[in-house]
Write a structure and sequence with these properties.
Blueprint lengths: L9 H4 L1 H29 L4 H18 L1 H10 L2 H22 L3 H29 L5 H14 L3 H33 L18 H14 L1 H17 L1 H11 L6 H25 L5 H19 L5 H29 L2 H33 L1 H25 L8
Helix pairs in contact: 2-7, 2-8, 3-6, 3-15, 4-6, 4-9, 4-15, 5-6, 5-8, 6-15, 7-12, 7-14, 9-15, 10-14, 10-15, 10-16, 11-12, 11-15, 11-16, 12-14, 13-14, 13-16, 15-16
Length: 407
């Protein structure tokens, strides 16, 4: 069922998409608020550093490793029901954490469960978008979702700072659980989005369907280019979040306020970037927007490595955020337009899973580079590598057919 919406804002004209957007935004704001509570709790434990490290590994690597299986759910299960199960499951896990605050092994197990459910929701929500909006509105719809998922959640830590003196860590976690429940209630407004029946050649076990998703990604040149370029770009540029604190405190000679300002720069760039893409993104083709995003984000990182003051670095990180917003929208749009419905869930799941693994690799090698050569060198390498990815991707788009569902 495709929801037609004439001109004007998608959020005003398209009620089902508005429910999806509100659900994602509230859930992400709650998640970023609750994460502050989780980190505060672990910071008070005897093994704080190890605990936080394990938390990040459970939150990123475990869902990433399960990505091929996760994607099958989005292709075989009715999407509205799947998303409801994910939100209710995350609410239940968070409530148990908040009330119990268990020992670290149980705490990490519950957090991993929550992370896996969140990873299942991500490809399901992106796969739902082409069902709710017209093809011409995909860029705008993805920009709206990006704004709600990555832009507005910067309010979460601010909200946590206001609430924690009054409600404590448990209160923050219960607030987080409440946002999952509200999100589930909003999802009730979506239409049923039945999975497309599998053909005889596609029927088989869960593992076989997962393998088919990986095989499709490898054989489809256009989709492989989108995923490969994005993942390699993250492997180069993921270090920037790690290196910012050392750049501010080291070469730029700033304290904690300077660190916060630099992180705020990329967040501001995301907010502005998604708004710009929503307004004018359709003027460019999705492949052009993807390459332009790579180039803008990478140039921001490259020049950050040469910045001589915190204010300059702030502006450059804002530029980096603009590029991230463009690439996020372009990649999602290319997959939605070029991959058939029965394979979209697996493609998105493998895409996001590979990004998680690439980020982990970037943190490991980037941390080593920061320690050996300093934060400026890390930004220069990240920027140069990202620009090389942009050049390669642009050249390949000119010589290859666009993304399609045919291998």
């Amino acid at each position: 069922m495709r929801m037609e919406s004439p001109g004007g804002s998608l959020l005003r004209q398209n009620r089902p998409f508005r429910w999806l957007w509100c659900s994602r935004t509230i859930s992400f704001i709650g998640g970023s608020t609750g994460m502050v509570g989780i980190l505060l709790h672990l910071a008070d434990t005897n093994e704080a550093v190890a605990a936080v490290t394990l938390l990040m590994l459970c939150g990123d690597f475990a869902p990433a490793l399960l990505a091929p299986l996760i994607g099958v759910l989005a292709d075989r299960v009715e999407l509205k029901r799947l998303m409801l199960i994910c939100e209710i499951g995350q609410a239940a896990a968070t409530i148990v954490i908040a009330i119990w605050l268990p020992a670290l092994p149980v705490f990490l197990a519950l957090f991993t469960l929550r992370a896996v459910l969140g990873q299942i929701f991500q490809p399901a929500s992106r796969t739902a978008v082409p069902t709710l909006v017209r093809d011409a509105e995909l860029e705008s719809a993805n920009a709206h979702l990006g704004f709600g998922e990555h832009g507005l959640p910067v309010l979460g830590p601010l909200l946590a700072a206001v609430l924690v003196p009054f409600v404590g860590v448990r209160g923050l976690l219960l607030f987080d659980a409440g946002t999952f429940i509200v999100s589930a209630l909003l999802l009730m407004g979506l239409p049923a989005m039945t999975a497309q029946p599998l053909g005889l050649e596609q029927e088989g076990s869960f593992l076989r369907n997962a393998a088919d998703g990986l095989r499709f990604l490898w054989r489809n040149a256009g989709t492989r280019l989108v995923v490969f370029s994005f993942v390699v770009g993250v492997a180069f540029t993921g270090v920037d979040d790690l290196a910012l604190v050392f750049l501010a405190r080291g070469p730029l000679g700033s304290g904690d306020p300077g660190v916060g300002l630099l992180y705020a720069g990329s967040a501001a760039g995301l907010l502005v970037g998604f708004a710009v893409v929503n307004r004018w993104g359709a003027l460019l083709s999705a492949p052009s927007l993807l390459v332009l995003g790579y180039a803008i984000g990478s140039m921001g990182n490259l020049l950050t490595g040469l910045a001589w003051a915190v204010g300059v670095a702030f502006v450059l990180q804002t530029i980096r955020g603009l590029g991230i917003a463009a690439t996020d929208v372009a990649a999602a749009t290319l997959i939605q337009r070029g991959v058939s419905r029965e394979m979209q869930g697996r493609t998105f799941a493998n895409f996001y899973g590979a990004i998680g693994l690439a980020a982990g690799v970037s943190y490991i090698f980037g941390g080593f580079l920061v320690g050996v050569a300093g934060p400026r060198a890390a930004f220069l390498v990240a920027g140069a590598g990202g620009l090389a990815v942009a050049a390669y991707t642009g050249a390949r788009f000119r010589t290859r057919a666009p993304v399609t569902s045919d291998p």
